[in-house]
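Suppose you are handed only these lines of text.
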Amino acid sequence: MVKTVIVGITGSIAAYKAAEVVRGLCKQGLKVQVMMTERATQFITPLTLETLSGNPVVVDMFGKYQQGKVQHITLAKQADLVLIVPATAATIGRLATGIASDMIGATILATQAPVFLSPAMNSQMYKHPIVQDNLKHLREIGYQIITPAVGPLACGDIGDGRLADVSHIIEQVISHLDAQTDLVGKNILVTAGPTREFIDPVRFISNPSSGKMGYALARAAAGRGAEVVLVSGPTAEQPPAGVKVSKVTTAVEMLREVMEHYPGMDIIIKAAAVVDYRPVSRARQKIKKGDAELQLTLERNPDILELLGGQKGQKILVGFAAETQDLLKNAREKLQRKNLDLIVANDIGRAGAGFSTDTNIASVLHRDGRIVELPLCSKTQLAHLILDEIISITSDDKV
Ligand code: PMT
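From them, the structure of the protein bound to PMT can be written out as follows.
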């Protein structure tokens, strides 16, 4: 059955991007019904949204659309999901306090569908404790907040508060609506992000992992019904809803945390970029710079995945390989040495793949020699494709 997304547009300069969101959702085969605040109509016309969505746009709670029906209740009941894009500070404040003075506030109070908010505003406004408190409250009552992007803002400032990328917003909606239940009953441990190995209190060895790949996996697995524990190095990623997150800094801390959860897990996915070497000693005080060269002596960190592979039993073990050359050869060697079921090989030298990007390009190598080449896609899409590959193994009654 065609699913219905109710899109609420509020009065922000970013309102024009809502047109692209509406177009993108329609292209995905969804029915889109738009409601707007009066102020939003000063930034973009209802006619534009009506043309793109193919449906009448509702601005006035007491307007002409579907006469004889209580409009906000009708929309609230139709909704499979409500998306407010952009969500201004004023709208967020009204929603957090239950003010139903316009179509958007009233519809949201009346709906039982999941509500997604995509905030957009000046970065000082976004960081303001009142706005943050309101967002926290809305998150606590189950609303999904799509984290704004960092970048140039309409007011000329640079910072966070910029509307998230249109493709990211669409993807969040689609992955929620596509939610599957094929991982219900499975316990999954995911690792994400880098580790940091400190030289002194202010300097460390690390890598550019953002955690996006691991967080996407954790979010996708939880969305498909798994109980997920995410052991994460330092990242700026928001904790995914419904996932138990354990934050660590060093490889040794990650090992400890992974080992603690390992016995109860069915599936382990190691997307973290663990730093292989750490300084033999960590200076207690900041090392003063001098003219002489500074030598660092490093020692090996434990290979967490290899240790897990040594005590694998019936668990499914999935590793990642970040390579700059001989991708498949190196990945296969790791798959065998670490006793894995699958390894996801990403060629981090390719544009759009690897560290910190929103997209990735990967090949999944199976233990039996099969190789599945996955196209350039968002890390969320890739996460789902990797989970599909894992499910294909579990359906052999392995777990
Ligand atoms: O976080 P993002 O910015 O989204 O970037 C994603 C990513 C590029 C970090 C991710 O896709 C990825 O490739 N992660 C693994 C990076 C890595 O450490 O590759 P490796 O080839 O060095 O390690 C192979 C496997 O062994 C990995 O699963 C790693 O988690 C694990 N390992 C490595 C070293 C170590 N000491 N302990 C480990 O468990």
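What can we learn from it? The chain has two domains: 4-179, 187-394. The first helix runs from residue 15 to 27.
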